[in-house]
Design brief:
Strand content: 25-35%
Radius of gyration: 23 Å
CATH superfamily of one domain: ATPase, nucleotide binding domain
Distance between the termini: 19 Å
CATH class of one domain: Alpha Beta
Structural class: alpha/beta
Strand order of the largest sheet: 11-6-1-2-3-17
Number of helices: 14
Bound molecules: adenosine-5'-triphosphate, magnesium ion
Length: 412
Amino acid sequence: MPGKDEYIAAIDIGTTKIVTLIGKMKKNNVLEIKGYGISECHGIKKGIVRDINEATKSILNSVEAAEKNTKMFIDSAYIGVTGKHISIINNWAEISIHSPSKIIKKTDLDRLLANANKLTLAPQNEVLHTLIKQFVVDDEKGILDPVGLATEKLAVELLVVYGSSTLIRNTVNSIRGAKVEIEDIILEALASGEAVLTPEEKDSGVVLLDIGGGTTDVAVYKNKKMIFTYCLPVGGDLITNDISVGLNIPFSKAEEIKKKFANVDYNFYESLNRVNMDDIKIDRNKATLNIRLYSIVNSRVKELLVLVKEKIESYGFMYSVPCGVVLTGGVSQMKGIINMANTVFSLPARLGVPSDAEGPSEVVASPIHATGVGLIKYAFQLKDFSAEQPEERKNGGLLARFRELVNKILKN
Ligand SMILES: Nc1ncnc2c1ncn2[C@@H]1O[C@H](COP(=O)(O)OP(=O)(O)OP(=O)(O)O)[C@@H](O)[C@H]1O
Ligand SMILES: [Mg+2]
């Protein structure tokens, strides 16, 4: 585990790009990104390795670019994972407090968490995170640190995030093929949430949407904790594909048009006179072209947002997220998408870029790098560094201690 003022590396394996970042947590709790390397991603789509040699080559390119950029050697890194194989399960455990004083001690907590960790998953699955949602002390809910309280009965509610062992192993093997050891594996939605959400949003309730090239990672936060996550295997590549097919142009040209001109709001097109008609060898009628582009991106983006909304609704979270929706990832830069999210969800919506991070502006101010920056932030959170903490807490907060119980894959 890293100490403060110590550099660590993180690798964000996205569908469109692989980013390796090097950063450290400064003493004032601001993250410093020293540098990064970026490569095109081949062999991995939507979080799933399809060609191990291609994947390893892409990872190596990204790692070497980061080493060149920072003049530092990377021998180990924190890795982000996502994909539709990721699932969650809620778990619950409780114990009685036997001591005469009924005061909860650290050893009671260890006993409770050991009980909670007895959950058995099907052998094809691997636990990624066991996150504490809340403690319940007698029947009082929402307790975040119960040590020192008096009670007869102590309970914990957990969110267990797990994924397919073989798919995670393929990612691990592609990284190891690039001669990088893995420090830990972190869910990408959790990393992005760490990078872009404010403490108040996480406390009051918020939905995070990281819309990338191949996946939309969703996370719901309430009472300072992630309480739900979900990966929809749909992202910006599908919008590009629709434009490519709809306008009968190559994917690369469609991608360019999407980034430069696409807007989900029709009003924008009325004033648009910048599309280079010579480049698009199809319809010469600008008005028709604009209507087509509008209807393609409007319907696809709306469909994506509605799918996420329906999922959130089906779990009953719509009334527990007063801070609304925070959009990040490359597609959050699509013109008009924030207003559309506001309308679709009937909740406030904003763009999420990394906060409390210093370094190259193209990284620390960009929603495309929310996951990468968040991986470094989350890695530092896995250890409780605060010098003000009592001695027994310095060696790892609850999160870190519980984390040690997982990740069998990394040990063999
Ligand atoms: N200005 C823009 N307008 C619309 N879309 C954009 C814009 N900039 C980037 N994108 C889209 O964002 C997507 C890439 O986002 P991002 O870099 O977050 O994805 P990724 O991390 O590679 O993939 P994933 O996380 O889905 O595996 C691409 O589809 C790209 O076209
Ligand atoms: Mg991504």
